[in-house]
Design a protein that fits this description.
The complex is a heterodimer of chains A (115) and B (111). By secondary structure, chain A is mainly β. Helices cover 0% and strands 50% of the residues of chain A. Chain A contains no helices and 11 strands. In chain A, the strands form 2 sheets. In chain A, strands 2, 4, 5, 6, 9, 10 and 11 form a 7-stranded mixed sheet that branches. Chain A has a 4-stranded antiparallel sheet with strand order 1-3-8-7, with no helix packed on it. Chain A is globular. Chain B contains no helices and 12 strands. In chain B, β8 and β9 form a beta hairpin. The chains are: A mainly beta (115), B mainly beta (111). Chains A and B meet through β4, β5 and β10 of A and β5, β6 and β11 of B.
Chain lengths: 115, 111
């Protein structure tokens, strides 16, 4: 089944404790990205990747890191999480040659709480 | 920079009635526009898109959207609403390598 998977689905952590949210897709997509969803703010893009070893900042990259060492994986790293990073996070992928004007496939989401 | 506005936080409609969820956009150049739907505890799902061509775009589950360049709008419509259409709907615009979403509109369809 074609899908985007994220792990963990739920995470409660404390301020300052480094964490990684994994994202993997099995559709051989070149484009991947991360969004956070907050009530009243909709979805805001954190980082995106056009291809392996190519990443770029979205609208709200502060406090996040990403890497794209393999085509299928795009982990989101929070080096020192803070309470304002409590949110619902979505990973996406797209099968285009790099432009996202084809539809995005969304993962199921990761609900992160930082205490 | 591009932006998307969904002026209604919630739209209420009775089952069987037509529905409209509004979206306006701001972008330099030609817009690429999308609608996505989010059901509870799920990721977003693609409904339809406008790239070029016919201003009326048909998508999944009987939804359609009308692109209006002069009004910079891309409203989502359905002739006859179902209770199962109740969900959160997002309009989005692509520009360059980024996709920008509106704030979302909650659609409530009552029996």
């Amino acid at each position: 089944e074609a899908q985007v998977t994220q792990n963990p689905r739920y995470l409660i952590t404390v301020t300052g404790k480094k964490l990684t949210v994994t994202c993997s897709q099995n559709m051989n997509h070149e484009y991947m990205s991360w969004y956070r969803q907050d009530p009243g703010l909709g979805l805001r893009q954190i980082y995106y990747s056009m291809n392996v070893e190519v990443t770029d900042k979205g609208d709200v990259p502060e406090g996040y890191k990403v890497s794209r060492k393999e085509k299928r994986n795009f982990p989101l790293i929070l080096e020192s999480p803070s309470p304002n990073q409590t949110s619902l996070y979505f990973c996406t992928s797209s099968w285009t040659s790099g432009s996202p004007y084809n539809e995005q496939f969304f993962g199921p989401g990761t609900r992160l709480t930082v205490l | 920079a591009q932006s998307v506005a969904q002026p209604e936080d919630q739209v209420n409609v009775a089952e069987g009635n037509p529905l409209t969820v509004k979206c306006t956009y701001s972008v330099s150049g030609n817009p690429y526009l999308f609608w996505y739907v989010q059901y509870p505890n799920r990721g977003l799902q693609f409904l339809l898109k406008y790239i070029t061509g016919d201003n009326l775009v048909k998508g999944s589950y009987g939804f359609e959207a009308e692109f209006n360049k002069s009004q910079t709008s891309f409203h989502l419509k359905k002739p006859s609403a179902l209770v199962s259409d109740s969900a959160l709907y997002f309009c989005a615009v692509n520009y360059g390598n980024m996709l920008t979403f509106g704030g979302g509109t909650r659609l409530m369809v009552k029996p």
